[in-house]
């Protein structure tokens, strides 16, 4: 799947209070492909977490078999052809952030939550993987932002905020496991994406322009259900999309180290976007937003290695 642009649309039942939940409607960086690549770059998650909070972290997921036990488990990897050497989602992400989350829970500064927005990009949607991820989230549910499962899927329920917010995508197979099979009144542990309007794939430049400029009301023709925190659209290369500024929407900008940023919610459209990224940004002072590639120069001076060549999906 290609990079995602998450759009939280301003709907009658999903208003400004909910948009404020994510960093009080200020920019959020998202570390795209934040996991080792062919055994290298094992420090990606450490680099992302070192930028400060809140931060988005993408974890691509597939089904892998532990060679020691012969049992399957969710692993973080860029493809579906797993070897058994891939890190387990439990160890690579959840146990890595344990001290951060437990400290946040002890401090109980809810105004700062969520500290980490973790985005799952499922490379396959076989039932055993989806159920294993659901069960794993259950083990860490005390850390995770939830909402009650409503009888009417169009009734948007309020969040119960926690230090982690878990997002996923729009596959119907995910909705079956993560919403339909959840009893009414039980907690939803992750939030997916509303189906969006199809955008023609060709010509590519026109597709990129539309994805960067279409207002949320056109991308999301129908209100999302509770399971869908918003809508996702296939992402565009930020070299093409970053320069586009919708007439009534937020400017999208790019900085070095393959980072993408957005401005706060636009009052006219009520939208906020979280573009995908390849590696973490340099942290600016509170409230500051990098708007040009110059903002990322400390990344090079710090001696951080560039990400290896790989797909941006």
Topology of this protein?
Layout: E1 4-8, H1 16-20, E2 30-31, H2 44-49, E3 55-65, E4 72-76, H3 89-94, H4 98-107, E5 116-122, H5 127-139, E6 147-148, E7 164-167, H6 172-180, E8 187-188, E9 192-194, H7 204-213, H8 216-219, E10 228-234, H9 238-241, E11 252-255, E12 259-262, E13 272-275, H10 297-301
Parallel strand pairs: 2-3, 3-5, 5-7, 9-10
Antiparallel strand pairs: 1-10, 1-13, 3-4, 6-8, 11-12
Quick description:
This protein has 313 residues and is of the alpha/beta class. 23% of the residues lie in helices and 19% in strands.
Characterization of this structure:
The protein is an alpha/beta fold and 313 residues long. It has one domain. Helix content is 23%, strand content 19%. The strands form 4 sheets. Strands 2, 3, 4, 5 and 7 form a 5-stranded mixed β-sheet that branches. Strands 9-10-1-13 form a 4-stranded mixed β-sheet, with no helix packed on it. The protein has a two-stranded antiparallel sheet with strand order 6-8. A hairpin with a 3-residue loop joins strand 11 and strand 12. Helix 5 packs across helix 6. It is globular, with a radius of gyration of 18 Å. The N terminus is likely disordered.
* Overall morphology: globular
Please tell me the overall pLDDT.
72
Distance between the termini: 5 Å
Annotation, overall tally of beta strands:
13
- Given the helix and strand composition, which structural class is it? alpha/beta
Helical segment tally? 10
Give the percentage of residues in beta strands.
15-25%
What is the total number of structural domains? Answer: 1
Gyration radius from CA atoms, angstroms? 18 Å
Helical proportion, percent range: 10-25%
Largest sheet: 5 strands, mixed
